[in-house]
């Protein structure tokens, strides 16, 4: 089994949890190997030729990309950073300061060498990990134990006021939704994506694009002229209606398109600033796509700093009030593109009475801008439901699970190499065998994107949805819109497959599907959403946050097309604010329940795949232990000097050892864990005290993107008694 090492809170938690996992599984002769796919690890692996021999590292992501094609692959993946450019630059700076002689990120490459450097960094940006590893479709759901715990211990709900003016605003035309074109391929072919300038000159943007018969190929573009008009209109409306202005994008996963969409909002809101100081900003290398934070940093050495700041503050005072990421520090919604990620920010807002915070840290109604209509309507549906039916009650809600299309990089919009910004007026066309398959006419600056969905991935996804509906005996809905070009083709494939299987499942547009799903869970029923890739990403945050208060507690299984499986440890990002608290107070509030669930499911899969009886018993006992852990409320507290991530791992280990000692199906494990159980239970108070006593003081991790391993281990494993007991478990 392979366990990934990633970033931020999950990386810290791994330092604490993995020694426990290795010891328990080692007692049954099950080995765990690790793979470093952290942002820092991916950067270093990309530039081995720049490093000293002792600094070089394996390309773990590439190795895992091959592993997941193996029928015996079992991979446990924790959340990783999907890096924006500001995050990438921060990681580069830290690594350079640690003595790694990697190159800077060139915003505007000046020669061939810098172009090659930027190409390498582009492969690290955004959702670089997931498309490589997800060689199967997604099955995400809340387990029965987690759901029952959430109902019995509901999170504190903020009431939704009937007079709320919060709204979701999106473009009515000119966006990706309205401009999409799509075809179903009638044969295998190799295509290229070309830009044809007004004078007829042709530039190949991408060649050797392998297309297969019956796959769906689509392309679309966003008109930046209409985008700017949309922003200007919404800024004025927000001011007029006394609403906060908030922008919700995914500038991490959509690494080419969304930073540009973000930059257009920055430049529209601060139009006077960018117009007046155009030459100065150009000389300083200011890129609006990187946000106001970088602008404010780069003007520090400018002779015009005072003038710039005066106009900046004047615009903030007279313009629409911006929602704040951190009111105390003056960090607005437009400061950093990766600060506000739509799939997390929108459900968090909706569960908070549909309010965000202003510069005075007061909660207010907001105008939530999601420019592309394609997915904005699901959040519009939630607002409509709240207005009609009132506040959602998590103690009574049913559950929305998800079966998501993502195998073979299906529908990887914006996070790959088929998204381009038009350098001039012209057309982008996809050509194969001398024939134009699809074409879009563009103006300078327009954002073009194309993507694919392979036929075998689509059929596997449909069948997975059908089977989940049968197994769970729950209603299932395909979220597909007849008015969208690629969905229209997908709907026909779905209907044909449903007919072949003799099954009748409903197909609704995303907004209607969302409204119906909300009606069902309000009635206490469960429903399965069967969606494309981006909706999968959004819904596995939206509904868990509304139901459970967090998306980190979902069981996420990726059954690979080739027979292996990946177990993702829930959504919820990598929690930078939690790292900040750890550094200041030595208290980590990261909840590892997602890791527990993934480990339990992976052991079940291992047991069935390898016909391993000890693995089966480990899985069964871990399932019981997780139930005990939930019942005894051993999840981390937010407050220092209370239980945190590390004590939560201790309690899981104790409950797991107790169950293994109690069971009578596997005598060898029973004998091993009887002593372990006695030791852990007998020293419970002393062990907990060792963990708690370390809290309340600042700690040094030796790095943020690349931790000092010894320092991190010492911080995350501070109990000598517990460490000694875990180390004493006999290994086979």
Short description:
By secondary structure, the protein is α/β, with parallel strands linked by helices. It is built from 28 helices and 24 strands. Strand 13 and strand 14 (363-369) form a beta hairpin.
Features:
732 residues, ten-stranded mixed β-sheet, four-stranded mixed β-sheet, 28 helices, 16% strand
Percent of residues in β-strands: 15-25%
Helix percentage = 40-55%
Radius of gyration, taken over Cα atoms and rounded to an integer in Å:
26 Å
Task: Give the beta-strand count.
Answer: 24
Count of alpha and pi helical runs: 28
Q: Biggest sheet, in brief?
A: 10 strands, mixed
Cα distance, first to last residue? 16 Å
Shape: globular
Average pLDDT score: 95
Structural class: alpha/beta
Low-confidence residue ranges: none
Q: How would you describe the overall organization of this protein?
A:
The model has no long low-confidence stretch (mean pLDDT 95). Helix content is 46%, strand content 16%. The two termini are 16 Å apart. The protein has 732 residues and is α/β, with parallel strands linked by helices.
Topology:
Elements: E1 2-5, H1 8-26, E2 33-36, H2 39-46, H3 60-67, E3 74-77, H4 85-97, H5 112-122, H6 130-133, E4 138-141, H7 144-152, E5 167-169, H8 176-179, E6 181-184, E7 189-197, E8 202-211, E9 216-222, H9 224-240, E10 244-247, H10 257-269, H11 271-276, H12 278-284, H13 292-298, H14 305-318, E11 324-326, E12 331-332, H15 342-351, E13 355-357, E14 363-369, H16 373-389, E15 400-404, E16 419-421, E17 426-432, E18 435-442, E19 447-453, H17 455-472, E20 475-479, H18 485-501, E21 506-508, H19 510-522, E22 527-531, H20 533-548, E23 555-559, E24 565-568, H21 576-585, H22 593-610, H23 613-631, H24 645-662, H25 667-682, H26 684-693, H27 709-716, H28 720-727
Parallel strand pairs: 1-2, 1-3, 3-24, 5-14, 10-14, 15-22, 20-21, 20-22
Antiparallel strand pairs: 4-15, 4-23, 6-9, 7-8, 7-17, 9-19, 11-12, 13-14, 16-19, 17-18, 23-24
């Amino acid at each position: 089994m392979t366990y990934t090492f990633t970033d931020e809170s999950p990386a810290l938690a791994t330092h604490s949890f993995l020694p426990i996992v290795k010891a328990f599984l080692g007692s049954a002769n099950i080995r765990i190997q690790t793979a470093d796919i952290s942002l820092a690890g991916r950067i270093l692996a990309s530039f081995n030729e720049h490093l000293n021999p002792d600094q070089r590292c394996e390309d773990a992501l590439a190795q895992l990309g091959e592993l997941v094609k193996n029928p015996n692959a079992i991979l446990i993946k924790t959340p990783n950073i999907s890096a924006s450019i500001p995050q990438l630059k921060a990681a580069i700076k830290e690594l350079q300061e640690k003595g790694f002689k990697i190159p800077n990120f060139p915003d505007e490459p000046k020669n061939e060498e810098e172009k090659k450097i930027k190409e390498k960094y582009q492969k690290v940006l955004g959702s670089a990990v997931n498309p490589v590893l997800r060689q199967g479709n997604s099955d995400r759901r809340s387990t029965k134990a987690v759901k029952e715990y959430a109902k019995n211990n509901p999170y504190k709900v903020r009431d939704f006021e009937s007079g709320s003016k919060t709204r979701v605003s999106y473009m009515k035309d000119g966006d990706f939704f309205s401009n999409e074109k799509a075809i179903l391929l009638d044969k295998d072919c190799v295509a290229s994506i070309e830009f044809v300038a007004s004078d007829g000159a042709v530039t190949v943007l991408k060649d050797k694009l392998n297309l297969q018969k019956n796959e769906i190929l689509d392309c679309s573009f966003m008109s930046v002229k209409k985008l700017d008009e949309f922003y200007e209109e919404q800024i004025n409306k927000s001011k007029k209606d006394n609403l906060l202005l908030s922008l919700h994008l995914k500038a991490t996963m959509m690494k080419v398109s969304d930073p540009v969409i973000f930059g257009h909002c920055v430049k529209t809101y601060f139009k006077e600033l960018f117009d007046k100081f155009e030459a100065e900003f150009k000389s300083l290398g200011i890129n609006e796509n990187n946000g106001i934070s970088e602008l404010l940093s780069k003007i520090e050495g400018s002779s015009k700093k005072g003038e710039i700041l005066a106009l900046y503050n004047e615009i903030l005072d007279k313009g629409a009030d911006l929602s704040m990421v951190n009111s105390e520090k003056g960090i607005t919604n437009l400061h950093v593109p990766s600060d506000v990620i739509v799939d997390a920010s929108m459900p968090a807002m909706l569960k908070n009475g549909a309010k965000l915070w202003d510069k005075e840290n007061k909660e207010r109604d907001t105008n939530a801008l999601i420019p592309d209509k394609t997915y904005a309507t699901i959040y519009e549906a939630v607002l409509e439901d709240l207005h009609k039916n009132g506040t959602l009650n998590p103690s009574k809600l049913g559950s929305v699970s998800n079966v998501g299309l993502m195998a073979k990089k299906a529908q990887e919009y914006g996070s790959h190499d088929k998204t381009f910004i038009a350098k001039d007026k012209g057309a982008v066309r996809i050509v194969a065998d001398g024939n134009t398959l699809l074409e879009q006419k563009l103006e300078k600056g327009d954002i073009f994107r194309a993507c694919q969905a392979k036929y075998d991935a689509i059929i596997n996804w449909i069948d997975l949805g059908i089977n989940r509906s049968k197994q769970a005996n729950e209603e299932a809905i395909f979220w597909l819109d007849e008015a969208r070009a690629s969905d229209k083709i997908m709907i026909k494939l779905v209907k044909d497959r449903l007919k072949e299987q003799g099954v009748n499942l409903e197909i609704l547009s995303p907004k209607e599907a969302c409204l119906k799903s909300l009606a069902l869970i309000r009635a206490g029923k469960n429903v399965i959403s069967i969606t494309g890739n981006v909706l999968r990403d959004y819904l596995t945050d939206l509904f868990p946050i509304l139901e459970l208060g967090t998306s980190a507690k979902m069981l996420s299984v990726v059954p690979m097309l080739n027979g292996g499986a990946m177990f993702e440890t829930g959504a919820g990002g990598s929690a930078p604010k939690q790292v900040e608290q750890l550094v200041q107070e030595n208290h980590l509030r990261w909840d590892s329940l997602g890791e527990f669930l993934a480990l339990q499911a992976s052991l079940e899969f291992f047991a069935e795949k390898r016909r391993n009886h000890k693995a089966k018993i480990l899985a069964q006992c871990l399932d019981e232990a997780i139930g005990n852990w939930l019942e005894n409320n051993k999840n981390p507290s937010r407050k220092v000097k209370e239980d945190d991530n590390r004590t939560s791992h201790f309690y899981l280990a104790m409950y797991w050892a107790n169950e293994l000692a109690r069971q009578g199906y596997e005598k060898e494990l029973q004998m091993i864990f009887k002593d372990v159980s006695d030791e852990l239970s007998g020293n419970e108070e002393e062990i907990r005290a060792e963990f708690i006593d370390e809290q309340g003081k600042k700690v040094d991790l030796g790095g943020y993107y690349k931790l000092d391993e010894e320092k991190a281990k010492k911080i995350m494993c501070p109990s000598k008694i517990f460490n000694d007991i875990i180390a004493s478990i006999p290994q086979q």
